[in-house]
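re: ur question from yesterday

yeah so i grabbed the chain u mentioned. its 304 aa long if i counted rite. heres the sequnce exactly as i have it in my notes:
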Amino acid sequence: MTDLAEVVELLEVEQLDAGLFRGSQPEARPPRVFGGQVLAQGLRAAGRTVPDGRLPHSLHAYFIRPGHCRTLIVYDVSRLRDGGSLSVRRVSAIQDGEVICDITCSFAEPREAVAPRWEAPVVDGPDELPDVAARLSAYAAELDGWWVRERPFDMRPLDPPPRAALDELDAPAVIDPVSRLWLRADGPVPDDALLHTCLLTYASDMILLEPVLVARRTTTLGPGSVASLDHAMWFHRTPDIAEWHLYDRRVVGEAARRGLASGRLFTRAGDLVATVNQEGYLSPHDPRDWAGPRLRAPDQTATS
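ran it thru and got these C-alpha cells back, copy pasting raw so excuse formatting
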C-alpha cells in the first residue's frame, strides 16, 4: 500500500556512475515489483542524462521477466542519440544480473501543441463521483482490504472497476470494452516537469488493462493471473499530475491469452496529454473459460 509521498521518493533514483542508476523499493515489499515503478524509475534515470530542457515524448518497453522487491534495481542507461532536436536513450532494468525490463525512450524540447483533432469523451466531472475506495466499499472485507487500500492517486471511476463489474454487469455475448475514470495525484507534487511525466507513467500502468479484465470477467487478483507484456506511451503535452486527468481506456485487440488495451489521457479542459498502449497476458484458471465473450469494435466517434 504505497502512498504518493513514497512513490515520489521511489523516483529519486540514485546515480552510481555515468549512465548507471539505482532505484529503491517500497517499504511494503510486495511479492513482485510493480511494472509502473520500473517504467517510471527507468524514465527518471534516462531523463537525468539528456540535455537540459528536453522532456519525454515517447516510451516503449518490454517486460522481460518479473522482478521482486528483495533487492534494488539497477538502471543502465545507454546514449543512443543526441541530435539537434531529439535525444534517445535505452534503459536496461537489471536485477540479480538479469534484465527484467528493456525501455527505449525519446526526449525533445516542449513545444506548443497543435490544435486537437480528437474530442474528449463527454462524461460527468470528478466532483460528482465517489473515489475508487468508496466505489468498492462493498468488498472491503475481501483480501485484507485490498480493494479499498491506500493509493498514490485519487481515482474516480465512471464505469465499474473489474471487481464491481463481476457483480454489476451481466455477461452477454458482447461486452462494450470501455472503461473511464478521473485521476490525479493524491497529495502535493514538487514542481518538476520530468517527475510529473514519470508519475503519469506510473499511474498509466496501474489500470490500463481494466477493460480487458472486465471483458474477461476477471480481476488483477483472479481467477487466473495477469501480467503486463509491454507498454508504450506518447506524451503530447507536459502533464500536471496534480490536476485531474480523464483516462479513457478501451480494448483494441485480443488473442487466446492476451489482451491489448489502448488509453488516452485528457485534461479537464479536454486537451489530449498522452496516448498509451499495453498488452497483457492472462493465465486462465480453467482453459475452457477462454471461449470468452466476443468484443464489439469500439466506436471511436462515441463521446460517452
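noticed a couple things. The radius of gyration is 19 Å. also Residues 193-207 form the longest helix (15 residues).
anyway ttyl
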